């Protein structure tokens, strides 16, 4: 419609309204305890010796970035904060292919502990209570303890005496262990046959075996308590294998803590329930996650209010490893590559770190120093070492770091790939995902699996895009407080589906920055808060509440105005001063329990520009109504109840929000003309000032007879006049003149 035609229509409607209206009408994730990520490095001095570099250091076999350094220092530099060393009663002292490194004596371990503690790391001392390897299939009594044969009571005394004297030697040397592990993989008991568990005999025999096993462990615990300083509690760890065997950890530690009178082991004064994990094709990390989650919940239920003298029992994976090259003895789901090896340790570490009730205490890699060297047979041919065949540190060492996961790749990559991150892959509730300075050009991170995080941080002038793959998306969730997405530099995009499992604050700090959330957003029952001077753009918002405290929230313009794809539905809406919600060409439904002042609040937000459309040029605006009055069953392509404020993109003057400015809209305006009592759009207040007057008439007159465009045939912004509009106006003018004549005549009488 040209300007002259608009002016002509406006003048006609001025005269109509002047005659028809004869009188005024009344008028809302940290770990509290230390978390250990470490390794069993018991054979470090021997590997150095076998390599011809007994002093280690600059001439040693271990390198980081091609530079030779002490093996323990390389691991500490990457975040290793605890080392385990094993100890035997009277072992061989020289490495052979037969003993495979079961050579650690008290003197050997004290010297190694001094070296390890000098790095600032903690030390676990692992008592095997044997002269050689103790494991689920071997728990041989030391030769010196078996001749003459000792009774259970005598053996308990021997265990206590040996443990006490050994710990006292460490204490005297100034390297008292920080954690003491009693027994190694004692799934079937220890010190056979005296302490061997019986799983197939009579109930009496089985009960007696648990009591004997428990008595030997209690003897070791008594020794630890005797050597620790007054007021000190040295954590005692126990150990079983196959943490991924369905139900095994729960069964073992449940029976062990059950009283002897009830058929159990009667062992309660310990601190850490240890398991080992070596992935197989039949079980895996998912089964272990289930086991340890159940165990953590059981621990908390048994001791919901722990004290210093009665601490919550914690869980550790005391051994795990995985090959960085082909090895037939491992059949896990990770690739047998350096990246796959890193991923395995990252997954195990993160699983323990995220156990409920902060019950995870740590995860240890077994035998990181096992490089093939010295012409001897080394465990797995070096395939599960943390160093390659040349002694260079492999990417797996980065999994020691407990720093927030940070993207480290200056190219496109995939989220679930440990080599692309420093500090591990963010994949659990409360995890922080940092996308910072690594990239020098726009990059895309593809979601190759569905993942979870608590916070996502973007800080780069180059754009990051988090892209979908086969529907994989991100869930944001925290154990307490609010999840967060923070943009401190640049503009970035989340194109993957985004699910909010917690209330979430999105902060876009720079005024010139925008966070584009183009993927499907699911925020059922959650509140979204916008902070920061910048903008965040959604396709739509379906949430319990939207709080715009600063900057702007934009609902992206859709091909079809008020389409279901762009319609937002919230339970509450708050827009602070100097901030805005821009609906562009979309609809909004705000459900309510009681309407209160919501309708007037909406009018004020529109009047102030806090609620707006940036596509108002050409005669478009946002109209609104209480659906209790409007009576729609659907709005913006979405079902709607009567208890809702509805806001839609329409034509200036379209009082009834039907997409056409016609006589119905004129009649609504006429019926309320002159009223100044917080009038609304549906009553003819088209400029949101709460008054229906000539200004509103001007708006309606300008667009009278115009309809919203058909998306399939008319471009957005084009208005379509009704063919009959001029005839209507002519009739209105005639009616107005007649009424005016009558009114004047009456006044003269």
Would you mind describing this structure in some detail?
The protein is an alpha/beta fold and 749 residues long. The relative contact order is 0.08.
Kindly list the characteristics that best describe this protein:
749 residues; alpha/beta; 14-stranded mixed beta sheet; nine-stranded parallel beta sheet; 15 helices; 22% strand; elongated; disordered C terminus
Map the helices and strands.
Layout: H1 3-20, E1 36-40, H2 44-50, E2 63-64, E3 67-68, H3 71-77, E4 82-87, H4 106-117, E5 122-127, H5 143-146, H6 152-172, E6 179-182, H7 203-227, E7 236-240, H8 248-257, E8 272-277, H9 285-302, E9 314-320, H10 338-353, E10 360-366, E11 406-407, E12 413-414, E13 421-422, E14 432-435, E15 443-446, E16 451-453, E17 455-459, E18 464-467, E19 474-476, E20 483-489, E21 492-494, E22 498-500, E23 504-508, E24 514-517, E25 521-531, E26 535-538, E27 542-548, E28 551-555, E29 568-570, E30 573-575, E31 579-582, E32 588-591, H11 598-608, E33 611-612, E34 620-626, H12 627-630, E35 634-635, E36 638-639, E37 644-651, H13 663-672, H14 694-703, E38 706-707, E39 720-721, H15 725-748
Parallel strand pairs: 1-4, 1-10, 4-5, 5-6, 6-7, 7-8, 8-9, 9-10, 12-15, 14-17, 15-18, 16-19, 17-20, 18-21, 19-22, 20-23, 21-24, 22-25, 23-25, 24-26, 25-27, 26-28, 27-29, 27-30, 28-31, 29-32, 31-33
Antiparallel strand pairs: 2-3, 11-13, 32-37, 34-37, 35-36, 38-39
């Amino acid at each position: 419609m040209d300007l002259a035609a608009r002016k002509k229509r406006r003048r006609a409607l001025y005269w109509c309204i002047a005659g028809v209206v004869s009188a005024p009408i009344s008028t809302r994730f940290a770990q509290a305890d230390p978390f250990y990520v470490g390794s069993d490095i018991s054979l470090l001095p021997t590997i150095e010796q076998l390599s011809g570099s007994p002093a280690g250091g600059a001439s040693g076999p271990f390198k980081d970035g091609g530079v030779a350094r002490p093996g323990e220092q390389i691991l500490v530099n990457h975040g290793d904060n605890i080392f385990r060393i094993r100890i035997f009663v009277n072992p061989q002292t020289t490495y052979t292919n037969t003993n495979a490194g079961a050579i650690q004596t008290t003197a050997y371990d004290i010297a190694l502990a001094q070296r390890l503690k000098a790095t600032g790391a903690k030390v676990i001392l692992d008592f095997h209570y044997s002269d050689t390897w103790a494991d689920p299939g071997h728990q041989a009594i030391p030769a010196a303890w078996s001749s003459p044969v000792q009774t259970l009571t005598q053996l308990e005394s021997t265990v206590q005496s040996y443990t006490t004297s050994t710990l006292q030697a460490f204490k005297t040397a100034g390297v008292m262990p920080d954690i003491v592990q009693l027994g190694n993989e004692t799934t079937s008991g220890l010190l056979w046959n005296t302490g061997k568990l019986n799983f197939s005999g009579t109930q009496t025999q089985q009960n007696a075996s648990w009591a004997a096993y428990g008595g030997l462990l209690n003897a070791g615990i008594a020794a630890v308590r005797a050597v620790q300083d007054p007021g000190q509690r040295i954590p005692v760890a126990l150990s079983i294998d196959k943490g991924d065997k369905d139900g095994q950890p729960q069964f073992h530690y449940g029976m062990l803590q059950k009283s002897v009178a009830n058929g159990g082991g009667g062992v309660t004064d310990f601190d850490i329930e240890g398991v080992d994990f070596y992935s197989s094709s039949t079980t895996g990390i998912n089964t272990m996650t289930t086991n340890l989650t159940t165990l953590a919940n059981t621990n908390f239920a048994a001791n919901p209010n722990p004290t210093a003298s009665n601490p919550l029992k914690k869980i550790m994976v005391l051994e795990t490893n995985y090959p960085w090259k082909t090895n037939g003895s491992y059949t896990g789901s990770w690739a047998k590559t350096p990246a796959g090896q890193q991923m395995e340790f990252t997954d195990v570490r993160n699983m323990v770190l995220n156990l409920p009730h902060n019950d995870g205490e740590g995860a240890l890699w077994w035998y990181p120093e096992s490089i093939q060297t010295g012409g001897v047979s080394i465990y797995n041919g070096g395939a599960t070492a943390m160093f390659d065949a040349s002694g260079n540190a492999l990417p797996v060492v980065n999994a020691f770091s407990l720093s927030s996961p940070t993207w480290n790749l200056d190219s496109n990559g995939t989220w679930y790939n440990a080599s692309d991150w420093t500090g591990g892959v963010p994949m659990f509730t409360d995890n922080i995902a940092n996308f910072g300075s690594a990239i020098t050009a726009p990059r895309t991170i593809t979601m190759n699996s569905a993942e979870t995080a608590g916070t996502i941080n973007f800080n780069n002038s180059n754009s990051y895009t988090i892209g979908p793959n086969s529907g994989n998306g991100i869930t944001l969730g925290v154990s307490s407080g609010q999840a967060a997405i923070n943009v401190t530099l640049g503009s970035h995009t989340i194109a993957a589906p985004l699910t909010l499992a917690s209330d979430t604050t999105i902060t876009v700090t720079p005024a010139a920055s925008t966070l584009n959330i183009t993927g499907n957003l699911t925020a059922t029952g959650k509140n979204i808060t916008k902070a920061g001077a910048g903008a965040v753009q959604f396709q739509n918002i379906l949430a319990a509440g939207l709080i715009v405290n600063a900057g702007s929230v934009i609902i992206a313009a859709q091909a079809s105005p008020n389409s279901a794809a762009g319609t937002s539905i919230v339970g509450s809406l708050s827009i602070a001063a100097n901030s805005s919600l821009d609906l562009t060409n979309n609809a909004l439904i705000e459900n309510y329990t009681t309407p209160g002042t919501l309708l007037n609040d909406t009018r004020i937000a529109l009047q102030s520009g806090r609620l707006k459309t940036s596509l108002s040029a050409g005669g478009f605006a946002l109209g609104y109504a209480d659906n209790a009055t409007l009576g729609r069953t659907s709005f913006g392509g979405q079902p709607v109840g009567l208890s809702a404020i509805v806001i839609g993109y329409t034509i200036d003057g379209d009082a009834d929000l039907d997409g056409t400015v016609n006589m119905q809209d004129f009649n609504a305006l006429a019926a309320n003309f002159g009223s100044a009592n917080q009038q609304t759009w549906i009553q003819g207040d088209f400029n949101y000032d709460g008054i229906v007057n000539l200004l509103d008439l001007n708006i309606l007159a300008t667009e009278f007879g115009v309809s919203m465009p058909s998306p399939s045939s008319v471009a957005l912004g084009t208005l379509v006049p009704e063919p009959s509009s001029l005839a209507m106006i002519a009739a209105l003018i005639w009616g107005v003149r007649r009424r005016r004549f009558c009114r004047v005549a009456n006044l003269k009488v």
